[in-house]
Amino acid sequence: MLREAFMSVVNRWRQSKWGRGVIDYWTLHVLFLAILALVGAIALVAINWGSMAFIDALFLAMSSVTVTGLTTFDFATVNPGTTIVCYILMSFGSTIVLSIPPVILRRFLYRQNEDPAKAADGGRRQHRTAMLGGTVSRTFMSFAGSQFSLGLESTVDGGDVGGEHGAGGHHIKSRTEYDAAGMLLSIYLAYIIGVQAMGVILLGAHAAWNLDMRALIVAQGLNPWAWAVFHTSSCFYNVGLSLLPNSLSLLQYDNYVLVISCLLLAVGNCLFPVMLRWIIVALHRYGGLRGRPRRALRFLIRNPRRASIHLFPDKETWFLLLTWVAILFFQVIGLLVFDFHNPNFAALTQLKRVGLFVFQSVSNRTGGFFIMTIDSYSPFMILIVILFMWADSYPLLFTIGKTGAIAPSQGVHRDPPRTWVPTREDEDE
């Protein structure tokens, strides 16, 4: 009986996706986050041995990995080691950073498919490679129920289009999609590093050279530049963790820090697809690139969903931008109507109240920072904040669903990929 039960378990395992060696993207994604949080929790317990319970460490680690920013204690009281661990966890768990591995995988599969030595290996090896490529393209690139085909057999007949000539009129494998993946990877890395570097410079210089700001930071036992590094990443990744007591309440009169924080919160979340497309269009129009790099940029502009889940066509990109502005506008108006005469804000000037509501509207939806404690809000204000937090995700989901319906023409589908054929304009560049 035990033997039959054991064999039943073994058979079920072999029939599962794990037993068949097929792991879908979401399973791998959740597994990565869980392992990362567990390792982070162990590191936090070791750093705070005797002063932090494992459950608190696990909660903080998972909060950092999932960029939610929730804590069971005042985060401003943690030691430098805990700050470093949380910084690493939120960096690896960021949505923007986690968009890089699919692009690397896509580029790797293009390279594997176009390697002449491996293509000539023949027989079973070729079959296994095709099986692997198909499996990966069906599983690792899934997003929100859609499966992204990598288009590994993208070929054209005729002249060389950034690829290699075949003999005797054979098909020529286009390298345009491979180059586009490489270009997109470079843009991702430059964007992540560049935006944060700019934020660190702007905030760090202000914290180090502004006497009032420096005194406030030093009074908390912090280095101005170290604070700038952590705060920039916490804003850009929309984590909401702050090294200052009560989030940013001590900085409610520092308009410079609040404006920079708002910009980092926006370009690191809701406006990331908008900024990504604008960068690609600007490089294509004004970058002065020719040949394969220019063709790669044109491919990203014309086939955005084939390249990345964060890229959308022009109309949908403008839709995201306008809906973000509209949501921000109506939330600020709602807060002004219900809480403009709130006695808790009586010490603030009218202009400062408007600025406060703008910051809270940007931050509450995704970042979690605050400059006024939640108990100072009226019930109507709390209701408005909750409603707009709920509504904030729908423009992106709607855009993904809408572009998913037209994506088969761009190579995003479950069926074998269509051949992408460059236009004469592409060939002439």
UniProtKB/TrEMBL annotation:
Membrane topology classification: Multi-pass membrane protein
Family matches, as InterPro entries: Cat_transpt, TrkH_K-transport
Coiled-coil ranges (or none): none
Region feature (Disordered): 409-429
Compartment list: Membrane
GO molecular function annotation: high-affinity potassium ion transmembrane transporter activity
Any one cellular-component term (Gene Ontology): plasma membrane
Gene Ontology biological process terms from the UniProt entry: intracellular potassium ion homeostasis; potassium ion import across plasma membrane
Residues annotated as transmembrane: 26-47, 54-76, 82-105, 183-205, 225-244, 256-280, 318-338, 369-391
Highest taxon, organism lineage: Eukaryota
Keyword annotations from UniProtKB, A to Z: Ion transport, Membrane, Transmembrane, Transmembrane helix, Transport
Protein name according to UniProt: TrkH family potassium uptake protein
Protein source organism: Allomyces macrogynus (strain ATCC 38327) (Allomyces javanicus var. macrogynus)
